[in-house]
Amino acid sequence: MKLPGSDxxxxxxxxxxxxxxxxxxxxxWLDPWVDGVTLHHHFGRLFDVAVDKVISVADMIGEEGGVxxxxxxxxxxxxxWEEKVLEVCKALVLGAVSFTEGEDRWRWxxxxxxxxxAYLCLRKDDSEEADWVKDVWNKSxxxxxxxxxxxxxxx
Length: 155
What we know:
The structure is a single chain. The model is unreliable at 1-6 (pLDDT under 50). By secondary structure, this protein is an alpha+beta fold. The protein has helices at 11-15, 39-42, 44-49, 57-60, 80-96, 115-124, 131-136, 143-153, and strands at residues 16-19, 61-64, 67-70, 105-108. The longest helix has 17 residues, at 80-96. The chain is built from 8 helices and 4 strands, in the order αβαααββαβααα. The chain has 2 domains: 11-106, no CATH class; 129-155, no CATH class. It is 41% helix and 10% strand. It starts with 10 loop residues before the first helix and ends with a helix.
């Protein structure tokens, strides 16, 4: 199980992503719309030299004649190594951009956020067998009775 702060990304953030609609409500650099990770995280140096750090995806990506392009704006001319990083970023962005009708949506995991999906996410990497889970999550015991039962059994 990955705990928040262990590698910079917690279990919740790891599953959180932004799904593009029209791209107007999604930050190009700061929202996790490309493979569930922010471009700021992957391309920190490009973010540092970008003029507009809060630009939306819709304002950053243009289309002309069916061909998509980015509208880059830098504080300074890029170094040669930064241009190579930019090429990787361009390929990633243009491969991920797919505008649809409607507003942008937050997604977690494979669908909308649910407590069950969060619980399963936490349990998937848990290699130890936890016997107490069966007692706490016993379907025949009402939830409000399960926790006092656990407290009494631990004393």
